[in-house]
Design goal:
Layout (H helix, E strand, L loop, with lengths): L22 H16 L20 H12 L15 H9 L1 E2 L2 E5 L2 H17 L2 H9 L5 H6 L7 E6 L5 E6 L13 H14 L8 E6 L5 H5 L4 H12 L4 E7 L2 H13 L2 H4 L2 E4 L2 H10 L20 H5 L1 H12 L7 E4 L2 E3 L5
Parallel strand pairs: 4-5, 5-6, 6-7
Antiparallel strand pairs: 1-2, 3-4, 8-9
Helix pairs in contact: 1-10, 2-3, 5-7, 7-9
Length: 345
């Protein structure tokens, strides 16, 4: 990058709600934030992408894509093709072409995006590891081996269309225990397992990021953590994101503002910045992501999310599958003295 045109130098920093004993501490933190967050997104993705235009894809065109993928019998990812959903393949094919917003992605361009995903999946042994950890009923090994930094990323509930809700809560991240090298695999197994269980008519998900309360200094002790997660997120979920809600605060707002400058427009155009959890709760109800009686206690509601689901990989996947298929789920706490049974867990 040409240092003379480095946009990081023009950023105005405002860390509201955080106090520093010395100005040097503040400047050091700002420098670290700039360096780590600028590389959240690969260089090729820093230009805005065409958004808000979806082209039609016929069943015949989709079948042609599957046929083309299936013909590569010697490819290391060949066995992964059977895990693709028709609705997602259509979504990838239906997006506008980056080089010409007025036209649909060319067939070969869309195929390359799908192949890149399949290749990543095969190289990281995703299918076998999902099966392995899903078979462990207590979920303890997943936490011990991979998810060392807390149960901060989890699936919980579905929206009015049956699309699942992915949650990230920074206040639940134990930064001092996070093993950064394991984070991409843990995040991938959590995200991909639910995506594999989607019904045929569903291909996308909602993402609720609760990033308003966390220890900034502990977070910055792992400067590569956020970039590692974002790279994994973009690899797993091309064209899968429905709406996203980013709850900020002091430092959380800073993270959002920098990400907004460098993230693909295809992501940021779907992301709503919320100044508070209460504001987010209102939007989630308005947009049909959560019902009034599904607003969790940590967002001002009365619904108590079941930590046994959040902490147990195997159970989490079983429950989110039930919710997506609108099947009866287990009884869970809604308030301090109420239990109900419902499909939305």
């Amino acid at each position: 990058m040409n240092q003379g045109n480095d946009p990081r130098k023009s950023l105005r920093i405002s860390l509201v709600g955080n106090r520093f004993q010395h100005e040097n501490d503040r400047q050091s933190l700002i420098s670290s934030l700039r360096q780590s967050l600028w590389f959240l997104i690969p260089e090729k993705n820093k230009k805005p992408l065409a958004t808000n235009v979806i082209f039609d894809v016929t069943d015949e065109e989709c079948d042609e894509m599957f046929q083309a993928l299936s013909q590569d019998t010697n490819a290391p990812w060949h066995e992964e093709v059977k895990y693709l959903s028709k609705s997602w393949v259509k979504a990838v094919m239906s997006q506008p072409y980056r080089k010409n917003k007025k036209m649909r992605r060319p067939f070969d361009y869309a195929k390359k995006k799908i192949v890149d995903y399949l290749d990543w999946r095969a190289k990281n042994n995703i299918t076998k590891e999902i099966a392995y950890y899903s078979a462990l009923e207590d979920g303890k090994e997943f936490t011990k081996v991979l998810k060392t930094g807390g149960h901060d990323l989890y699936w919980y509930g579905v929206d009015k269309d049956g699309c699942p809700n992915l949650w990230y809560r920074a206040d639940m991240t134990i930064f001092e225990k996070v093993e950064v090298r394991k984070t991409p695999k843990a995040s991938a197994l959590i995200m991909q397992a639910a995506l594999d269980k989607m019904p045929s008519n569903i291909h996308n998900f909602n993402f609720i990021v609760v990033f308003d309360k966390f220890n900034v200094f502990k977070a910055m002790s792992k400067p590569t953590l956020a970039p590692a997660f974002v790279r994994t997120f973009l690899k797993i979920s091309p064209d899968r994101l429905k709406p996203a809600y980013f709850i900020t605060g002091g430092a959380g707002g800073f993270f959002f503002d920098i990400a907004a400058k460098i993230a693909p427009a295809s992501v940021m155009d779907k992301t709503t910045k919320c100044k508070s959890r209460e504001e987010a709760a209102d939007l989630l109800q308005r947009d049909g992501i959560l019902k009034t009686d599904e607003i969790p206690t940590f967002m001002g509601g009365e619904y108590e999310q079941d930590e046994n689901i959040m902490r147990n990989y195997s159970r989490m996947m079983k429950e989110i599958e039930k919710a997506m298929y609108n099947e009866a789920s287990t009884c869970v706490h809604v308030s301090s003295n109420t239990l109900i049974c419902r499909g939305h867990f």
